[in-house]
Design a protein that fits this description.
52 residues, Arc Repressor Mutant, subunit A, 3 helices, globular
């Protein structure tokens, strides 16, 4: 899996891998953050997500 290999993922990379729209990808990622699966790191254009 990408996150296990790299240790992080961006919204852009998630969209590329899943072929989802920006809005749907954002919803998916936000749900994973809310459930405590992912942690958000950085701000703005530099935000990326890591496994908790």
């Amino acid at each position: 899996m990408y996150m296990k290999e790299k240790g992080w993922i961006t919204n852009k990379k998630y969209r590329e891998m899943t072929e989802l729209s920006d809005e749907v990808a954002r919803i998916d990622i936000n749900e994973l953050v809310e459930k405590g699966v992912l942690l958000s790191k950085g701000r703005g254009r530099n935000v990326h997500y890591v496994l908790k």
